[in-house]
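Quick log. Single chain, no ligands specified.
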Amino acid sequence: SILVFFGMYVVSDPVAVLASDDFTEEDRIALAKELGVDRPLLVQYFSFLSNVARGDFGTSFVYNKPVMELIIERLPATLEVAFLAIGIGLVIGVPMGIYSGLNRKKPSTKAISFLTTVGYSIPNFWQALLLILVFAVWFKWLPASGRGDTTLLFGIAFSFLNLDGFSHMILPAINLAIYKICMQTRLARSGTQEVMFQDYMTFARAKGTPTTRLIR
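-> predicted structure:
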């Protein structure tokens, strides 16, 4: 809270951000009073905390709208990309992890282990730039930014309900999913290796239970 407060109200100047070129000195003073930035810093900080505790995150200096309203407007776009990334991570990561756990000595398992280590370590923002460069700039297969066309569902705009909107979701979802794939693969691999050598699994194999059933 201290970092956010000082970054927004001390390092930057809200009055300078919001004031237009034709503002007079009186207009700037009136705006400072309206924003409450004319008060002592300590008073401003505790007022800031009090407002946040009540769910009032203030007014955006860029859009001049309540911050909570902006968050709610953008929440559907954030959630649909996040859920798509989670789905991709589970669908790819869990089978890869199970395969790696069952085939520990195969070269393909070592390759998967190497790729997940690399994917786990690459900075997300740099990875995003590479994806945009390759798939949006070089090959022009996918759009680099924006949300595309949206379709209303229960009064909320969603992108995944039409092809253009979904194509805009793919790159950011893949960017988020790469980390999740690596994490899910590691978790599934270690879990599979641990479970396959438990006593009850050994007993099931001794009774003749098919391997495919054990894996399921």
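The first strand starts at residue 151 and ends at 153.
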